Amino acid sequence: MNSIKNFYSFVFIIACGLPLRAQQSGDRPWIFESQRPGIAPAWALDTRVTFEGNPTYSLQGAGKDYSAGYWYKIVSASPGSYYHFRTHFKASNVDEPARSILARVVWQDEAGDVVGFREYPATVMRKANDEWHIIEQSYRAPENARAAKLELHYRWDGDGTVNFGGTTFEKTAEPQSRMVRLATIHHRPRNSPSTEENLKVFGALVDKAGAQKADIVCLPEGATIVGTKHDYISGSEPLPGPTTKYLGEVARRNNLYIVAGLLEREGEVVYNTAVLIDRKGNLAGKYRKTSLPREEIDGGVTPGNSFPVFDTDFGRIGMMICWDVTFPEAARSLAQQGAEVLMLPIWGGDITLAKARAIENQVYLVSSTYDMVSAVFDLEGNVVKEATDENPVVVVEVNLNEQKLWPWLGDLKNRIPREMPSRKAIESGKL
Predict the structure, then answer these.
(1) Structure pTM?
(2) I need a labelling partner for 2 at 20 to 30 A (CA). Which of 28, 181, 356, 385 fits?
């Protein structure tokens, strides 16, 4: 043990056969705890790895893939007041940081009993060149809360190490609402003479959404070819191209974002693509459909191979296209990258699957379709408002900062990445 101390120059205690509670001197100490002695990770007050000049709290897997434990501190809280929790962490050799590294805020009453929901603050993963990541979120203390137990967890990775530092829990103002007006269009061109005529009609409908102060509008899949004589190949075009130029003019005059499905040509390759046009009319991004049905495969379309997300001035969005909604992987990948709204240009499909993608990822979903439901779905999978042939344009205002609390489950959105199956388990079923 002494050699380990001398080598690392910090207090290092292997929690195996030793007391699982050790506290640092000073007011309101941090204390190590594990659910059971046999699964405890190694833990240390680390003077070698510091945060802003202060020692950090280290947890290591110590070769045990089943290790689980945490540092905790109990602080006072006033009922009904708002608090902002924040901690920083640096990790190495951790396969799934979002699953293995987390924080919890556990509210307690005067007797120390748990009240309200256990909170799981969100993780903000920084870019690779920034070593310290952040876990943070604001909360309102329950009416009978008198304290909060702050927990810094590491679990289920025998090879990794995490250091926590700069943990704060401070009173704050009530979080500001982050309102966004989501819109969808329900229209199916029939016997259209051209792509240009399709765009003209869709553009007029977007103008109606713009008149209702929409922030982002979803158009359907294949908007440039539906109802025309074009097929996937003859109706394809480069990006940027004539369609993105036209939609850019519509977006700019209405000061909104547009998501639309079209066919993209790049050399000899044709993709089924959703484009994102920003408020200034620029092509801000694109997504190439990864899940192709047999009709598109037989028609010569090539699948994409990535799930990009895009930052807008109101939040982060992801895009899926039609058949993608049949499989959980697309929506899951986008949500894991922080997408708050999924835009779904879709020809036709199963509304139950659209609802499931919203529920299982706790995101808003906006569909625009010909043969399904064109609607805005909430975090419970409910259709908030549907566009129809009689009312082809609907706009729904939502608060992206509003916390959704489920009965018994609490904040499911932040629990999902912590409690979902590991990648190793998922990979074990692949052929």
Answers:
(1) 0.90
(2) 28
Distance CA 375, CA 358 (A): 12
pLDDT, tens only, 73-86:
999 999 999 999 99
The single residue of 73, 149, 289, 355 carrying the catalytic annotation is 289
Q: What is the CA radius of gyration of the chain?
A: 25
Q: Which residue has the tokens 């408020």?
A: 279
Per-residue pLDDT tens digits for 102-130? 999 999 999 999 999 999 999 987 655 57
Mean pLDDT of 246-250: 98
16 catalytically annotated: no
Catalytic residue among 90, 218, 296, 322: 322
Question: Around Cβ 233, how many Cβ atoms within 10 Å?
Answer: 13
296 is catalytic: no
pLDDT tier, 426 (very low <50, low <70, confident <90, very high otherwise): confident
pLDDT given for residue 27 in this prediction: 53
The yes-or-no answer on residue 322 being catalytic is: yes
Please answer whether residues 129 and 81 qualify as being in contact, where contact means their C-beta atoms are separated by less than 8 angstroms. no
Strands 393-399 and 179-185, sheet pairing: antiparallel
